[in-house]
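Question:
Write out your own:
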Amino acid sequence: MPQDMPPVGGYDPIQYKRNLPARGFRPSVYLLGTALIMTYGFWKYGKGVREMNELAREKMWARIHLTPALQAEEDRDQVRRYLADRKREVELMGSETKVYHTDRFVRPTFAITPENETK
């Protein structure tokens, strides 16, 4: 019986590597896309921080400019209360009395108390 021999020219090479198609983009494309997205995000964040700082600065300067007006309003209210208290004192006591033994002005302190006490 004759022995089987290989074909003339030999057999085809054996495919031992996997032949998988590349899925998606190259890693450098993903890296570039991520870098672009992060750059845009940091840029927007920086703009937001600058906007918040500007609003805080504007709020601070508004308070600085309003402080004298608010202080003057409080002073006028204190003078009105003081004069009303002195007038009421003269009506009740018949004469003007001094709490302190000095002519120096002492800023009065008012404590607002409720009319009805609740427990």
